[in-house]
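Re: the 242-residue chain
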Amino acid sequence: MTDATTHAATRPPPPPLIEARNLSRRAPGQGAWLFQGISLSLHEGDQLALRGPSGAGKSVILRALALLDACDQGDVLWQNAPIEAAAVPSYRQKVIYLQQRSAMLPGSVADNLRLPFAFAASAGKSYDEAQARSWFARLGRGDDFLTKNARDLSGGEAQLVALVRALQLAPQVLLLDEATSALDAQTAASFQQLVTTWAADRPSGLDHGLSLGRALIWVTHDEKQQVSLSNRVIKIVGGRIP
């Protein structure tokens, strides 16, 4: 056995990309808990499905993991470390939340794709129109789609733009909240295939010695989608993980 092989064999496993510790949130305007004591870890390669009845707080949990919604109790860690306030914009490019109803700003589809690169957190990244065209082609949209007015998009088309807008930022984690709900079956299948291909791709190199592996969490009421797109299912029952 070579020294390199020995070193690889003894190297400790990478930390989870995201770890949630005892997340708890009260229902708005009520004293009752929406969910309580939610703890989970998301590792490289995980494709996790979050399952539970409507109103169980699944969307709020995803938004909490993206640091978009605060919880009453608990912590979210990134690769075993707390996330400092100054690092939140950068974190939100590594961990991107895609909601059911995707917001589009005035202008063309291309304008909406360029927008994230105007922010300081995107320093060092640039809009790649050829890559965007390639992704949209895989989603069944032609080159003219980039010039379409964002106000004229259907709900499903807005979901496609939101996905491409997220992928171009090279995130490590996608949090998908009913992100294909407005798509027809064929386009939803293309969306799922693109996300699955993205998740399986492991970019080369290291980020300050930390892994660049990818992972995702799906929230979907489509049971077939839950089975086909996840290698792990977490159930929310009575506001807790059993």
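The radius of gyration is 19 Å.
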